[in-house]
């Protein structure tokens, strides 16, 4: 009777307290979820790292143990693979493009110069590794082992060796090597037919250390290709690829009067030959175009160095650069927005004078003008005073 409004006050306080606690709890959980999402995705949404429909556009291939070089069961669920299962294989270069696009876009958005440089360095290093591996495989395929009989003996030549410096292999030794390879092949086929647990026990208990090493070396040689060991004994492939001092200045940022920011990435490819992307106001599109330009530069350096080593003519250099540009355009990161690229030549003809050709969308026309200026400069032409 002395406190008629006591229950009403307690009821209001309880309702307010419960509502406030629910509000704080939901916001705490939401903040934690957002922070974890940003950390896992590098301050980007998943759709920015991989465009919609990327998985559906990958080629569907049939599972083959020799192709994947793995056990015939899933390492997560321990279930056996079936012929009806779909396995989608992604290109390694596409992964490098996606990683660079996500990291460089985030770094440019936050103004992190060192993060942008690190993304570019890792991207170029990944491209160089892929290009070098492909070049080694091509070189090994072109310089295959040659066997011929000479006076009852088998003469074997290895790539990179001097003419006449062939290794003499006796017929008996060659027969033993062939028998050993046949035995290792049969042993691998038998081991592949065993379950994984029994396979490991058999290798650990029944095979000696020397046999395990021989089997491992033979399997690695088979995976790398028949000429992997021979290519290592010969001269290594050198591309001359190096990481340029790339920074956010390569995006060629332009600020308009109303505060809008535009980008027109440009990149020096080879010699006095340059490439630039079309102007855009979208930072993500500009970074993707810069990734394609970096791919052009890396391929031009690799193939251009090969042309220099071969001491080919101007036409061969032009053909090599044309192939590098077309390959880079074919490797560019897929996306809903297409990028246009232009090519031009900037060359210093004399002290204080520089010639620049118009920007061409056709790479063949631009390379023709580049070659013409090279020959003009080699002929001793001088700029007018």
Q: Which secondary structure elements does this structure contain, and how are they paired or packed?
A:
Elements (H helix, E strand, L loop, with lengths): L5 H36 L4 H4 L4 H4 L2 E2 L3 H4 L18 E2 L3 H19 L2 H30 L3 E5 L2 E5 L9 E3 L1 H22 L3 H11 L2 H16 L3 H6 L19 E3 L5 E3 L2 E5 L2 E5 L5 H28 L3 H18 L9 E10 L2 E4 L6 H16 L7
Antiparallel strand pairs: 1-2, 3-4, 4-5, 6-7, 8-9, 9-10, 10-11
The 3D shape can be described as flat
* Alpha plus pi helix count: 13
Q: Distance between the terminal alpha carbons, to the nearest Å?
A: 109 Å
Q: Sheet bearing the most strands, described?
A: 4 strands, antiparallel
What radius of gyration results from the CA coordinates?
31 Å
- What is the β-strand count? 11
Mean pLDDT: 68
The helix content is: 55-70%
Percent in strands:
5-15%
**Low-pLDDT ranges:** 144-170, 224-243, 306-312, 381-385
Structure class: alpha+beta
**Succession of helices and strands:** HHHEHEHHEEEHHHHEEEEHHEEH
As an assembly, this protein is single chain
Lateral strand order in the biggest sheet? 8-9-10-11
Keywords: Membrane, Transmembrane, Transmembrane helix
Transmembrane segments: 12-34
Would you kindly provide a written description of the structure presented here, covering whatever features stand out?
It is a single chain. α6 (about 115-140) packs parallel to α11 and α12 (about 315-330) packs antiparallel against α13. It is built from 13 helices and 11 strands. The model is unreliable at about 145-170, about 225-245, about 305-310 and about 380-385 (pLDDT under 50). Helix content is about 55%, strand content about 10%. It is flat, with a radius of gyration of 31 Å. β8 (about 265-270) and β9 (about 275) form a beta hairpin. The strands form 4 sheets. A 4-stranded antiparallel sheet has the order 8-9-10-11, covered by helices on one side. A 3-stranded antiparallel sheet has the order 3-4-5. About 20% of the residues are buried. Among the domains are: about 95-140 and about 240-380, no CATH class; about 145-225, no CATH class. With about 375 residues, it is an alpha+beta fold. Keywords: Membrane, Transmembrane, Transmembrane helix.
